[in-house]
Specification:
Helices cover 28% and strands 22% of the residues. It has 573 residues and is of the alpha+beta class.
Length: 573
């Protein structure tokens, strides 16, 4: 293993200029809204009434590099490490499933990358937001039908959002902010929140807010009533079928083999160019490259920086680039029972000072990443304001902290990672874990590397069983709220996994979400990040730039930081 690790870390460096993400200000809720353009009519709908102005609009996001312009149809094959646990939109919370959600389901609002700061109406054709950002009223687009032929109505919206909340699964927290929903008529839904939330419009971009065909889901055992977490039985059906209005329909899923989607023949909008999309489970990046260059697949999602450089130099594929809001982080359990020595925050701080962050970015990612000061990505509100809380590599300070904690001679640490896995940015899980183990060994921490099957590692992490692990986080929506709550509030997704509980951090992040003024929001988020970093349950390792290798005959492939790629716009010869 040592020789393999050295080979990875001694690869020749090819420096690329990284375009930093543009500031999104107070979140997308304050951005201008444009009508959706992908409906049956080529004429865009009128802009919705925006939320009260909160800021000067952010500068446009840096342009991404799209695939070349060639038209065509047929089957499009994506190779990636699939971490899919479910394809139920109200339960899915992994990295692969949003691609399927974006293809088979639709939302009230969406974004159109490379512009990620403007929210576009989609299934909604009009919208009104109250001045206190507490009440959101949507008028649904006329003529939308689900794949079943059933018309979209306000009842479907209410059912979908209620079910998301009542299933009490990983993404259910997104809907906890909804206090009530009214349906004055079949095409109007009024959503009232439990409190003002400046991030709610951005939250609705999340694939978890996909609109489901309520009649079909109920027919297969679904319910949106209290107790759905015990009585709903629709997930098994939704894992093999879809109940959406999107341009594709799900035809089947075989775990760790493939997901198959076909063009929706009843799609209400413009028909997708592709007839079929297959997502194949190919965990090995080198195999992905070989399949791409042989023409057996059309997109390779998990090539590391070295392979990307080799493919680009060989000219055998196109490289699609885009700015992500993904983060890769190191998680440490804070309880004595699971975390053991990590229960002392001085030990967690020592690890924070021991990691060679620049080495990870420059050596493993070839410079194609940045590192925000906390788990909230660069480009979002309150992150630049928290720069003073950033950890920097300082082995001497790390040793001092270990000595203060009574561990001057170091200790044993178990680092769990995904066997054969790939982290965000195409980084080998084994290489990243080995690099961290090397760094920690320099301050006397003896790391036992614990590889587990990707789905097993994820399940054990979610169950709070791991002493430490490396993991990725991709955006549910484009606002700091999407990181602040799950990482900073006790009992929420990431915080629960490491038993993290700091009421002061939770209060700061929750107050920020209720605050309309962007400057005050930024201050609250920055202060919350400072305290979160001081506790150090999570260490952000890097924020990668998206680099996807696609066939030379592919057109319209643009990176989407929420759903991965809008497959309805992809073509191939």
């Amino acid at each position: 293993m040592g020789e393999q690790r050295s080979a990875w870390l001694s690869a020749a460096m090819h420096r690329r200029r990284f375009l930093r993400l543009t500031a999104l200000g107070a979140g997308l809720a304050g951005a201008g809204l444009l009508g959706a353009c992908r409906g049956a009519s080529p004429t865009p709908t009128a802009p919705a009434t925006p939320a009260p102005a909160q800021q000067t609009p952010a500068a446009p996001a840096p342009a991404q590099t799209p695939a070349s312009t060639i038209s065509g149809g047929g089957t499009f094959v994506i190779a990636r490490l699939t971490d899919t646990i479910t394809l139920d939109p109200s339960r899915q919370y992994e990295l692969t499933s949003p691609i399927v959600m974006g293809a088979c389901y639709e939302r009230l609002v969406t974004i159109q990358p490379p512009d990620i700061r403007t929210i576009h109406l989609h299934l909604a054709e009009k919208m009104d937001i109250s001045q206190d950002v507490t009440t959101y009223t949507f008028t649904l687009r006329q003529g939308v039908r689900f794949a079943s032929g059933n018309p979209l109505t306000s009842t479907d919206v209410v059912f979908s959002f209620n079910r998301l909340r009542e299933l009490k699964d990983n993404p259910s927290w997104l809907a906890d902010i909804i206090q009530s929903m009214e349906t004055p008529d079949e095409h109007t839904v009024q959503i009232t929140l439990t409190e003002p939330n400046a991030a709610f419009l951005a939250m609705l971009v999340s694939p978890n807010f996909s609109i489901l065909d309520s009649a079909v889901v109920k027919e297969h055992g679904g319910t949106d009533q209290p107790g759905a977490d015990k009585s709903d039985t629709a997930t098994e059906w939704l894992n093999q079928n879809s109940a959406g209005s999107g341009p594709f329909i799900l035809k089947g899923w075989v775990k760790e083999q493939e997901i198959v989607m076909e063009r929706n023949p009843n799609y209400w909008g413009q028909s997708a160019p592709l007839e079929r999309v297959i997502i194949r489970h190919i965990p090995d990046p080198t195999t992905q490259r070989q399949l791409l260059e042989n023409g057996d697949i059309d997109a390779a999602h998990n090539l590391d920086a070295d392979l990307i450089a080799e493919v680009e130099q060989a000219g055998t594929a196109q490289i699609v680039r885009g700015d992500t809001l993904d983060t890769e982080y190191f998680a440490m359990h804070t309880s004595p029972e699971v975390g053991k020595e990590l229960a002392d925050k001085r030990v967690r701080q020592a690890i924070a000072y021991a990691i060679d962050y620049d080495g990870i970015i420059q050596q493993i990612l070839r410079g194609a990443a940045v590192r925000p000061p906390s788990v909230i990505p660069s480009g979002l509100l309150g992150v630049q304001e928290a720069e003073d809380a950033r950890y920097r590599t300082d082995p001497e300070r790390a040793r001092q902290l270990l000595a203060e904690a009574g561990l001057a001679n170091g200790f044993e640490l178990t680092l769990t990672y995904s066997s054969g896995g790939t982290e965000v940015g195409g980084v080998s899980s084994e290489v990243l874990a080995s690099k961290i183990a090397d760094d920690l060994s320099k301050i006397g921490i003896r790391v036992t590397l614990d590889p587990r099957a990707p789905d097993v590692r994820l399940a054990d992490y979610r169950a709070g069983k791991l002493q430490s692990t490396i993991s990725g986080w991709t955006p549910d929506f484009l606002d700091p709220h999407g990181w602040a709550i799950p990482f900073g509030v006790p009992g929420e997704a990431a915080a629960r996994r490491v038993a993290y509980n700091n009421p002061q951090v939770a209060d700061l992040f929750q107050r920020a979400a209720r605050t309309a003024d962007p400057q005050e929001r930024a201050r609250l988020y920055a202060e919350g990040q400072r305290l979160l970093n001081e506790d150090a349950p999570f260490l952000c390792l890097y924020q990668p730039k998206a680099q996807i290798a696609v066939g030379k005959n592919v057109q319209g492939y643009v990176f989407d930081p929420v759903i991965g790629v809008d497959l309805s716009k992809v073509r191939k010869s």
